[in-house]
């Protein structure tokens, strides 16, 4: 990997070699970050080269990634659509051409987490491991299960018992060994860490394995390429553990350092008001966060003890991010707006970023004429119960024309 310089701890600066099994800092236990040689990337890849490429997946950007090559068979991860969403823009109070939706619910297991899991599977293979494990609010788990299944790896998964049925069904269908933990995400993470230690499985916990963020950052590489490398002023993303926003930021920074974009977007960090430890600290540009209850219907971002606060809070301060917290009601509204004005079906955490934009616009935090990309991180079919709660049950009739006439005004 001539493009990779090594790894560096984000807390104490200790450097380490970027070996496939790399986890946390050997000195302080902090989270490692993969570092690149941007001159090397610059001299080996141009926008024109990229435009010629046939690869339609996250692996299109190998020069920006800590892998030499990727094996097959594999799922098609990435290459999700970026829509210009004028009708939704208007509904949110933005101008024409000012809103884009990156629909990452269109990934193979229906969330952005596929980008991290596909990376985990490649790195586990490089490390010569055949058993891989994670704890997850649900999507990291289902994506690991799917990406491991196609590669023939055995997956051990720990999820909180509250995980929506759709996600649990995916896990079972992909043949993962699933443990439902009767407790919070915090409890789930703890037991998974102990088990991984005990059994020696490859660790797919995104906050511990620094490669996973490198997979997640491909969402930004795609957004930039899809925008012709002319970035929107803002990019909005929902935040749980903090790995996604950190990955999103890393992707833009990498592009900037390698000369592919000439200005960085501001991020909009969106959390649920019922669980917003990162935004509470981030709003003050502080790195001192305190645990919170996990009190929101957006299960994927119901993370009371974030596992990647340092990288997330760095992303917030470096990008001078807006921090916006949204209520469950506002999330339900955003789910409906995405559906009705853009035809995009999002799970609650997937719609949260859009709810955040709506609120930021309403509160006058977005300047006139600004452009925004909203990342839909997960598909609504994963959590049908909340979708029905948001949109309501349809009316039901006997197969009778008269009954139909009677309810026409309620359709
Ligand atoms: C995991 C997830 C997030 C947040 O990512 P973090 O890395 O936990 O901050 C947001 N939305 C969805 C749908 C997710 O699955
Ligand atoms: Zn360290």
List the helices and strands and how they pair.
Elements lengths: L3 E6 L5 E2 L15 E5 L1 H7 L2 H6 L29 E3 L1 H7 L6 E5 L9 H14 L4 E5 L3 H13 L2 E7 L4 H9 L3 E5 L3 H15 L2 E2 L7 H6 L1 H9 L7 E5 L4 H15 L8 E7 L4 H6 L26 H10 L3 E5 L1 H15 L5 H15 L9 E5 L7 H8 L9 H7 L4
Parallel strand pairs: 5-13, 6-7, 6-9, 7-8, 10-11, 10-13, 11-12
Antiparallel strand pairs: 1-2, 1-3, 4-5
Helix pairs in contact: 3-13, 4-5, 5-6, 9-10, 10-12, 13-14, 13-15
Summarize the structure.
The chain is an alpha/beta fold. It has helices spanning 38-44, 47-52, 86-92, 113-126, 139-151, 165-173, 185-199, 211-216, 218-226, 243-257, 277-282, 309-318, 328-342, 348-362, 384-391, 401-407; strands at 4-9, 15-16, 32-36, 82-84, 99-103, 131-135, 154-160, 177-181, 202-203, 234-238, 266-272, 322-326, 372-376.
State the secondary-structure class.
alpha/beta
Which ranges are low-confidence, i.e. pLDDT below 50, for 5 or more consecutive residues? none
Taking Cα atoms only, what radius of gyration do you get, to the nearest Å?
21 Å
Number of strands: 13
Bound molecules: pyridoxal-5'-phosphate, zinc ion
Q: Assign a percent range to the helix content.
A: 25-40%
Count of individual helical segments: 16
Q: Would you list the SSEs in sequence order as H and E?
A: EEEHHEHEHEHEHEHEHHEHEHHEHHEHH
Distance between the termini: 59 Å
Largest sheet: 6 strands, mixed
Strand order of the largest sheet: 4-5-13-10-11-12
Q: Strand-residue fraction?
A: 15-25%
Shape: globular
Mean pLDDT rating: 96
């Amino acid at each position: 990997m001539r493009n990779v310089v090594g790894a560096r701890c984000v807390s104490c600066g200790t450097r380490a070699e970027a070996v496939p099994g790399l986890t946390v800092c050997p000195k302080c236990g902090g989270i490692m970050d993969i570092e690149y040689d941007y001159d090397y990337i610059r001299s080996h890849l141009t926008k024109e080269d990229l435009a010629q490429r046939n690869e339609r997946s996250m692996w299109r950007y190998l020069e920006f990634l800590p892998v030499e090559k990727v094996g097959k068979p594999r799922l098609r991860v990435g290459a999700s659509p970026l829509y210009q969403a004028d009708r939704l823009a208007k509904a949110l109070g933005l101008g024409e051409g000012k809103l884009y939706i990156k629909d990452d619910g269109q990934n193979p297991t229906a969330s952005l987490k596929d980008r991290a899991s596909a990376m985990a599977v490649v790195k586990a293979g490089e490390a010569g491991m055949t058993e891989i494990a994670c704890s997850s609010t649900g999507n990291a788990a289902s994506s690991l299960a799917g990406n491991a299944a196609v590669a023939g790896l055995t997956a051990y998964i720990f999820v909180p018992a509250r995980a929506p049925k759709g996600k649990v069904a995916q896990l079972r269908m992909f043949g993962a060994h699933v443990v439902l933990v009767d407790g919070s995400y915090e409890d789930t993470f703890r037991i998974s860490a102990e088990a991984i230690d005990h059994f020696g499985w490859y660790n797919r916990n995104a906050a511990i394995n620094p490669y996973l963020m490198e997979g997640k950052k491909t969402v930004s590489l795609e957004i930039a390429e899809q925008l012709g490398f002319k970035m929107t002023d803002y990019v909005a993303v929902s935040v749980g553990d903090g790995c996604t926003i950190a990955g999103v930021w890393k992707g833009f920074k990498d592009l900037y350092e390698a000369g592919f974009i000439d200005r960085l977007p501001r991020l909009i960090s969106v959390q649920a008001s019922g669980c917003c430890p990162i935004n509470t600290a981030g709003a003050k540009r502080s790195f001192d966060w305190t645990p919170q209850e996990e009190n929101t219907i957006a299960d994927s971002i119901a993370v009371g003890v974030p596992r990647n606060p340092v990288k997330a809070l760095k992303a917030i301060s470096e990008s001078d991010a807006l921090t916006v917290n949204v209520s469950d009601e506002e999330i339900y509204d955003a789910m409906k707006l995405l559906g009705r004005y853009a035809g995009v079906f999002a799970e609650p955490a997937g719609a949260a970023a859009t709810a955040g934009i709506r609120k930021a616009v309403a509160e006058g935090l977005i300047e006139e004429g600004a452009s925004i990309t909203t990342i839909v991180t997960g598909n609504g079919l994963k959590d049908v119960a909340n979708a029905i709660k948001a949109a309501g049950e349809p009316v039901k009739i006997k197969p009778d024309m008269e009954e139909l006439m009677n309810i026409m005004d309620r359709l």
